[in-house]
From TrEMBL:
Family: Belongs to the cation transport ATPase (P-type) (TC 3.A.3) family. Type IB subfamily.
Chain's gene name: cadA
Domain of life: Bacteria
Location(s) in or outside the cell: Cell membrane
Name this polypeptide is given: Cadmium-translocating P-type ATPase
């Protein structure tokens, strides 16, 4: 009966939009007691829009957006796409950047129109010896207080402004969290984004503040999963980004969003084809039931 039951399970899975790498991955769903959720693109839509611009004294907002947008045009990050789109809408053609570098979890650097430009977390600027002046730091704090993701823009060795983008929680995410809890799983939110934006999303979907890990660098995501495992938990992880791949592989059960990047899909045990977080609960319920049929 074993092979037939597994085939039925995986066939039903395909109908629900769940792709399973192999029947052996179902085994870990029995013991899973914790589910780590990436924020951007997993709990939220990952489609960000530019909401506010704050420019340093003497800096033209249009120029701020043009230089930042030109650089971000070379990046695939959701923050980058929002800034590049807004810049193209506002200023038309963007100059092509030269010498572009992405620093995972921090931002981007490169040359635009003869300027040395950086866009990213305050930490990216600080690592290059650039400090945010008090007025921009206050603007960043205020934007984050409202749940936004604020990134700093610098060129030629000075901070020039703060651009704030924001994302929305997917319509099914709160229900997904409720259903995962009903299966006995403890949800944890994991993100490279700022603590206030992460806290706002956690509150909206019903994740406890103590279960939020924010400002985590890409290599830190796998460490969060490993620490939970070291504390005796059996961990499922749901993610969509390049930054999530190592954590998906480390988890006892890795669930990749089908809307995510190939690296995440390759690292996961299961793929949620439509990128609907509610299907994570279906996958675990179905898998447990399939295993119960076999035993
Ligand atoms: P998440 O875990 O939410 O997917 P990441 O680890 O990819 O986030 O990024 C963390 C933070 O690093 C972002 O919230 C942003 O502040 C900054 N960042 C990353 N990439 C970029 C970029 N291309 N442009 C500007 N900021 C970026
Ligand atoms: Mg993500």
């Amino acid at each position: 009966a074993t092979p037939t039951a597994l085939l039925v399970g995986t066939g039903r899975g395909a109908q629900l939009g769940i792709l399973i790498k192999g029947p052996e991955v179902l085994e870990s769903t029995q013991a899973v007691d914790t589910i780590v959720l990436d924020k951007t693109g997993t709990v939220t839509t990952g489609v960000m829009t530019l909401v506010t611009m704050d420019a340093a004294d003497g800096v033209d907002k249009k120029e701020l957006l043009r230089l930042a947008g030109a650089l971000e045009h070379a990046s695939e990050h959701p923050v980058a796409r929002a800034i590049a789109r807004a810049a193209a809408d506002a200023t038309g053609d963007l100059p092509a950047p030269a010498g572009f570098t992405a620093v995972p979890g921090l931002g981007v650097r490169g040359q635009v129109a003869g300027h040395d430009v950086m866009v990213g977390r305050e930490r990216l600027l600080r690592d290059a010896g650039v400090e945010l002046p008090a007025d921009l730091a206050a603007a960043k704090d205020a934007a984050e207080e409202r749940g936004g993701t604020a990134v700093a823009v610098a060129w030629d060795g000075a901070a020039r402004g703060v651009l704030t983008v924001s994302d929305t929680v997917k319509p099914g995410s709160a229900e997904a969290v409720r259903r995962l809890r009903a299966l006995g799983l403890r949800p944890v939110l994991l993100t490279g984004d700022n603590a206030r934006a992460a806290g706002a999303v956690a509150a909206e979907v019903g994740i406890a503040a103590e279960d939020v890990h924010a400002e985590v660098l890409p290599e830190g995501k796998v460490a969060v999963v490993r620490d939970l495992q070291a504390a005796g938990r059996t961990v499922a992880m749901v993610g969509d980004g390049v930054n999530d791949a190592a954590a998906l592989a480390q988890a006892d059960l890795g669930l990749a969003m089908g809307t995510g990047v190939d690296a995440a899909i390759e690292a996961g045990d299961l793929t949620l084809v439509r990128g609907d977080l509610r299907v994570a609960a279906d996958a675990i319920r179905l898998s447990r039931r399939t295993l119960a049929t076999i035993k």
